[in-house]
Specification:
Two copies of one chain form a homodimer. The first copy, chain A, has helices at residues 8-23, 61-68, 90-94, 109-116, 143-151, 164-168, 225-232, 245-267, 272-293, 301-305, 307-318, 321-332, 336-343, 350-364, 372-381, and strands at residues 2-4, 32-35, 40-41, 59-60, 84-87, 99-102, 125-128, 133-135, 140-142, 154-159, 173-178, 237-242. With 396 residues, chain A is α/β, with parallel strands linked by helices. In chain A, the strands form three sheets. Chain A has an eight-stranded mixed β-sheet, with helices on both faces.
């Protein structure tokens, strides 16, 4: 069991799966490896972990985590279970893991996958906590599928109305895990025949994937919805298992465009009712998009019913970054790009790049007018229309 | 065209339909009657309408509205179109109206219907802005259907993520109108045959209604989705027409139970992610309830897709009374009933009575455990469980 990444969300997930492995020693090994990009940290004098013998000497973050069971840099003041083992070597951290949990910023993905390739168990299985899709003019690729194909394994996706620090503090919330168990992993008790165990599985378009899987050894515990439910669910973290990786991935990516629109509307001085209208229109466009480009595989109820659908939409549009900073931009009368420069230290808002990519993808197909809210966000980003113009887009 | 009721929501609706009738004189008569429960109002000296000649003499509210085109008592500072005509006589206000719009507090309904009976056009049609359902241990009755049956007419329902003062200020929002056009009103251009024009129509259970309708005269303009869309939609008020009165009515009533639960959770100190989980569970229970008791007629997508579904849920759980006061109760460590007494001047929170009625209805059928969130709200109201116990209800 390895969590790849140790930011606030990665460390939070390591905490909760480590609590679960201890509870289910019949299914999982106790220790959870957490790969940490090593860095030097100096503990301040007022830290409870300050050691006069060490003084101001910078220490390795992994050493601090393993000694004090706290990620002082990215998840301070949260006690981690002793079975979270910080490991600065990516290859060492992943080499024995049957379950790989991906949880780091999107921009590092290809570099990390390249380092992992050939150093993992051939029958490893993944769960991506990195939300979303990669959209180019030619293609939409689910991030979980990109991971799976790059490593030659199957990889599902976790997404929901989740804010890392709230979960770390054990405030209750829900999440959705999409895992379309490969036929070669289905056990006889699940009613599967052996005829499907040649490593074929269907991709997100419903076609046989080019990636042939190495089946999970038969003497291993199974890895299906029941096990992932056990691994991720906690008293404060309620898990719902689905098989629809498309709905979970599209919801996780496209809601960021809607959150930008909600920030515009609220920054403009409109209230909850207007914002709710934007959310609703946004959800209708996400579902239309899913139907149009993944007609064989989308299960719409994922978006209507699941935490990864409406749940994540609501949280993203009322309590998260894309919404907050686009609202700030309108309130200050500057562009969102300007806010990125002045407030975000060069960090980027995911919703802006997703808006650009999706708009360009739709334009390439002459479909931009079928998605008036997505279109409006790009037009407002480029200052070609005003927030006041949004309601007109929805008149008959 | 008559709006029955002149509170802040009633006056707001009178404003918007009066704007629309002026825009569509080919379809509607210009004047909109608004029935006002007459009362005396004294204008303060700093009112822009203060008249030294009248001084502190109390004046009739209807006279003030008709003179200054402002409902100074219930919707102050909002200019009404001159074609909103305040009328203190209910029977006079409704006698010539083909369209009756019901918009007053739920508790006055039977008294008002009794006064109207026999004084309306036999072919009048209604739209109820009074949300919801009446639940007894024996029955669930839609309020719009109750109105229709009491008056011997057909009555649809308007509901959505709407806050009256925001709409009065022309901030953009959306609404849903459910109107299941009676067969006798369908025109040949709609593809209807004359064989169905005997006044029969289906009730909310899908059975032939006991109420026989008098068809709209054939030389009258039609009254169908197109006309109601024209009547209610404004540049700042986007209307969606559906035929599912069940979904709209159940959403409008049961979301109040969920809003109470959201107040509990937020008052307890949990954040948006926990609240979103409650909303999602609540929506799943509303839909299960609709499937269980209106299996022939419910169109689930009304609740997933429409402003009267998820939209209204979000606004009710983040910006409205039931949520606000149940949150306050938990924050202050007192019962919601106590808050009703001390903060609401004896007014009642709809969500509490709906919770009681629905819980009792479900218990009568041995079904309360199928609706864990609805059950939890009643248990918390009676202080039989704590807010902390909510997540347990949803573990496998």
């Amino acid at each position: 069991m390895t969590v790849i990444g140790s930011g606030n969300w990665g460390t939070t997930v390591a905490k909760l799966v480590a609590e679960s492995t201890r509870e289910h020693l019949d299914v999982f090994e106790e220790d959870v490896q957490m790969w940490v990009y090593e860095e030097k940290v100096t503990l301040p004098k007022d830290s409870p972990h300050y050691d006069a013998a060490v003084g101001d000497e910078p220490q390795n973050l992994t050493a601090i985590i393993n000694k004090y069971h706290e990620n002082v840099k990215y998840l301070p003041k949260i006690a981690l279970p002793g079975n979270v083992i910080a490991n600065p070597s990516l290859q060492d951290a992943v080499k024995d893991a049957t379950v790989l949990i991906f949880n780091f910023p999107h921009e590092f993905i290809n570099n990390i996958l390249k380092q992992m390739k050939g150093h993992i168990l051939p029958y490893a299985r993944g769960i991506s906590c990195i939300k979303g899709v990669t959209v180019t003019d030619d293609n939409i690729e689910l991030i979980c599928e990109h991971i799976g194909d790059a490593l030659g394994i199957y990889c599902g996706a976790l997404s929901g109305a989740n804010i890392a620090t709230e979960i770390a503090n054990e405030e209750w919330c829900e999440t959705t895990i999409a895992y379309n168990t490969p036929p070669c992993d289905l056990r006889a008790t699940n009613g599967a025949s052996n005829g499907t165990s040649n490593g074929d599985h269907k991709d997100s378009r419903g076609q046989i994937s080019k990636t042939k899987l190495v089946p999970l050894p038969h003497d291993y515990p199974p890895l299906d919805h029941e096990e992932f439910y056990k691994l991720f669910s906690r008293p404060y973290f309620t898990v719902s298992m689905v098989s629809d990786v498309v709905g979970v991935s599209l919801g996780g990516a496209l809601k960021n465009i809607v959150a930008i629109a909600c920030g515009f509307v609220e920054g403009h001085g409109w209230n909850m009712t207007a914002k709710t209208a934007v959310m609703r229109r946004g959800m209708l466009e996400i579902i239309a998009f899913a139907r149009e480009f993944f007609p064989e595989t989308i299960q719409e109820k994922t978006l209507w019913e699941e935490s990864a659908g409406w749940g994540d939409m609501i949280v993203s549009c009322t309590a998260a970054r894309n919404w907050r900073y686009s609202k700030m931009a309108v309130e200050r009368g500057v562009s969102v790009q300007e806010i990125e420069r002045t407030e975000l230290n060069g960090q980027k808002l995911q919703g802006i790049s997703t808006s650009r990519e999706v708009s360009s993808f739709l334009r390439t197909r002459g479909l931009e007018d079928h998605y008036p809210l997505f279109k409006a966000v790009e037009l407002i980003l480029d200052q070609n229309i005003k927030v006041d113009d949004i309601p007109k887009l929805f008149r008959k």
